[in-house]
Amino acid sequence: MRSSIISILLCLVIVLCVNCNSKQSNSETHIVEIRQMKFVPAKIEVAPGDSVKWINRDIVAHNVAEETDNLWKSTELQNGDTYTIEIKGKASYLCTIHPVMKGKVILKK
Question: What are the residue boundaries of the Blue (type 1) copper domain, all occurrences included (predicted)?
Fold first, then answer.
């Protein structure tokens, strides 16, 4: 009887430890297309921890770079290439190859 109780308690501890370590993710991945020399949509609203995935659908190469503090920057993206990052804060971004191309990531409250 005592060994059964110990076995049950041990199983319960293992289950609790596994559940405590499993991270439930409610994060989303938002898509921004690069086409006709624009980011579409140019402004998106995301929750902290969400990701943004840029997809180059244009015939020329582009990149995506955080504009204010240079916190992140993609490599050169050819047609069909993608770049994904997890958003940790609001950001203004641009294509450094074509600096007139700009966009914004806004955090939901």
Answer: 32-108
Q: Which two tokens stand for residue 84?
A: 């994904």
- Ordered by where they begin, the domains of the chain are 29-107 (2.60.40.420)
The tens digit of pLDDT for each residue in 17-50 reads 444 444 456 889 999 999 999 999 999 999 999 9
- Whole-number Cα distances in Å, 72 to 25, 38, 46, 65: 23, 19, 17, 6
* Distance spanning both ends of the chain, measured CA to CA: 54
- Closest CA relative to residue 104, chosen from 76, 89, 55: 89
Q: How far apart are CA 55 and CA 47, in angstroms?
A: 20
